[in-house]
Amino acid sequence: LPPRFLAQDESVARDVQRLLVQFQDEGGQLLGSPFDVPVDITPDRLQLVCNALLAQEDPLPLAFFVHDAEIVSSLGKTLESQAVETEKVLDIIYQPQAVFRVRAVTRCTSSLDGHSEAVISVAFSPTGKYLASGSGDTTVRFWDLSTETPHFTCKGHRHWVLSISWSPDGKKLASGCKNGQILLWDPSTGKQVGRTLAGHSKWITGLSWEPFHANPECRYVASSSKDGTVRIWDTTAGRCERILTGHTQSVTCLRWGGDGLLYSASQDRTIKVWRAHDGVLCRTLQGHSHWVNTMALSTDYALRTGAFEPAEASVNAQDLQGSLQELKERALSRYNLVRGQGPERLVSGSDDFTLFLWSPAEDKKPLTRMTGHQALINQVLFSPDSRVVASASFDKSIKLWDGRTGKYLASLRGHVAAVYQIAWSADSRLLVSGSSDSTLKVWDVKAPKLAMDLPGHADEVYAVDWSPDGQRVASGGKDKCLRIWRR
Amino acid sequence: MPQNDYIELHRKRYGYRFDYFEKARKKEARKVHKDALVAKKLRGIKAKIYNKKKYTEKINLKKTIRAHEQKDVKTVNKIHDENGLPSYLLERNENKRTKVLTNLLKQKRKNKVGKWDLPIPKVQALNEAEMLRVVKSGKRRKKTWKRLIDKVSFVGNNFTRKNPKFERYIRPSSLRFKRANVYHSELKTTLSLDIIGVKVNPQSNLYTQLGIITKGTIIEVNVSELGLVTQSGKVIWGKFAQVTNNPELDGCINATLLV
């Protein structure tokens, strides 16, 4: 066996302690059989061995963990602090990292004026081809990314556009306003598609499309509102398909999961789990002691990008090619990859300064409670590979937690005022955050520290988004201008 | 000094003089000048006594004026919303607490002592006759050393009465309560929570020890159902609340949580 020979060469020269190790993947599956390695083996060597065992065509970049500690320099150094039993087989957990690498954005390439009031929401389309922004001046604007100029201005709403959401195929944009109306727009023409979806009595707090792998036509969209109801709309027929009532106060956040379950978080301190196709309430998750502000699913990024694979992105973003069936299969395989063995995980952040990690499809009791923040939590996001959870809070810090167990990893400090929104890069290595102090900061998650400071906005930054192809970051705020940042 | 209420009877039957109220008002206005004349003419020990009395009155008046001035001004600014706000900032107020200080030192001393910001800062003083009713005992019903507590009280789980022969304060079981309806000002809901104990009764220490609950009493309630957690992860299960009603009149204890 090749590994043995490699190891034996070195140990002949030096008298080094040897250990029995076995590779194990994140889900607990063992890879190969246990074998001998010298204690001073480096991660590069381990990578060679592991790739050989995995028998892949292209070698994957991997990270290795022993007893929750990452192997950085050599196996020996990592085990120094721990008691090592040389009799037992040591389990080394390998984690495949993203093959592509997203570079940190460093400069503001353009500052796009156009909105006459504050920019409230910003979103890139799933392939990164289009950029849309909603504002307090009641318009939705589409921006041309290749020339970085305004493309279309969509008038139709009569109050602030509070939330926007792209359909997973990138062909439609849904926008919700403070009057409770939802409009659909076509990004290629800038015209409204279909009828105005009216029905909610108070403002829209969140929009979520049905996942691509469940329905590649992207027909259904769900909306949550301050009036405490969740409505599922049929966009082709232009009417409300189902109304889900049950919350006693405003529904603050909504997520359509990949398993056909709909999750809604509310100010009445509960999270309700609904079955999407017939609207039956499955579970109520209780535990928070104040309003639940935000939620994130472990498969969020995969559901957002649908069939688009960020590793295959090109410089000029293109629409997805292929038949509906092919795209559906691609989306499903991407979803299953991110999801892993177990069910979807849900993280919720609240005004009571804590987060809860749930496995909502299985249990109504939380997996862990993550404490540590000193002010309310405004946004939580799973990383695209679902290994890390980042939480942005009004206490000026961002905390990183393990995505599987909820264990605290690190705190990112640097902002001088409340952190409003965050966005992950597609390779899960970088995080950008926009704050009330008018700056954006790019953080390196591996060594957890600040990578780049991006000043430039004149007033509070209300929304940030990182394009799925990793090239651009867009941010908008109270100073009414939208800024695009690139490398 | 009227010996009986004949003055009130006359007033009830025949009413007041037509110029009664004007005369009373003017007399009160003149009183200030009359007092000044008296103060100028007084000599000797009488003057000293009078001046001392006036001095203490002046100090108390100044204290009350200062107390009014030293307000904790909580300006609740609605976040400026003409331009447009994202949904996470809607309905959030910037709470700016500005303390208007006239005496920085006194404020520091108060904070050290740990004076709480209570919903009911001052409570009406109740006299003993209201709280404790005399219970006569003995073969000839002449001994009056026993007292029955007329107000609501809280006794713990493991309470056993003392030997009735030696029991001085009787807490009737009909007036014993275990639960309180506690109002949480931020969540704007009322929850029915178990009482853990009586912390402070503002009337007197004796009532605190006996566990008597009147309006303004600070009680400790079991808040484990709210699920509050400290930063280090420990679960908070007891919090203080102040009683806001008269429990003996209503039959229930209503309190506000001190957050």
TrEMBL record, chain A:
Its main location: nucleus. It is found in: Nucleus, Nucleolus. Gene3D superfamilies: YVTN repeat-like/Quinoprotein amine dehydrogenase. It holds the Pfam family WD40. WD repeats lie at residues 112-153, 154-195, 197-243, 244-274, 370-411, 412-453, 454-487. CDD domains: WD40. The keyword Zinc-finger does not apply. SMART domains: WD40. PROSITE patterns: WD_REPEATS_1, WD_REPEATS_2, WD_REPEATS_REGION. InterPro entries: NLE, WD40/YVTN_repeat-like_dom_sf, WD40_G-protein_beta-like, WD40_PAC1, WD40_repeat_CS, WD40_repeat_dom_sf, WD40_rpt. GO terms for biological process: Notch signaling pathway; ribosomal large subunit assembly. It comes from the Eukaryota. Residues 20-79 form the NLE domain. GO terms for cellular component: nucleolus. Keywords: Notch signaling pathway, Nucleus, Repeat, WD repeat. Belongs to the NLE1/RSA4 family. Associates with the pre-60S ribosomal particle. Interacts (via WD repeats) with uL18. Interacts (via UBL domain) with MDN1 (via VWFA/MIDAS domain). Plays a role in regulating Notch activity. Plays a role in regulating the expression of CDKN1A and several members of the Wnt pathway, probably via its effects on Notch activity. Required during embryogenesis for inner mass cell survival. This is Notchless protein homolog 1. The lineage of its organism: Eukaryota, Metazoa, Chordata, Craniata, Vertebrata.
Automatic annotation (TrEMBL), chain B:
One of its GO terms (biological process) is ribosomal large subunit biogenesis. It comes from the Eukaryota. InterPro entries: NSA2_fam (IPR039411), Ribosomal_Se8/biogenesis_NSA2 (IPR022309). It is found in: Nucleus, Nucleolus. The keyword rRNA processing applies. One of its GO terms (cellular component) is nucleolus. Keywords: Nucleus, Ribonucleoprotein, Ribosome biogenesis, rRNA processing. Belongs to the eukaryotic ribosomal protein eS8 family. Ribosome biogenesis protein NSA2 subfamily. Component of the pre-66S ribosomal particle. This is Ribosome biogenesis protein NSA2 homolog. It comes from Piliocolobus tephrosceles.
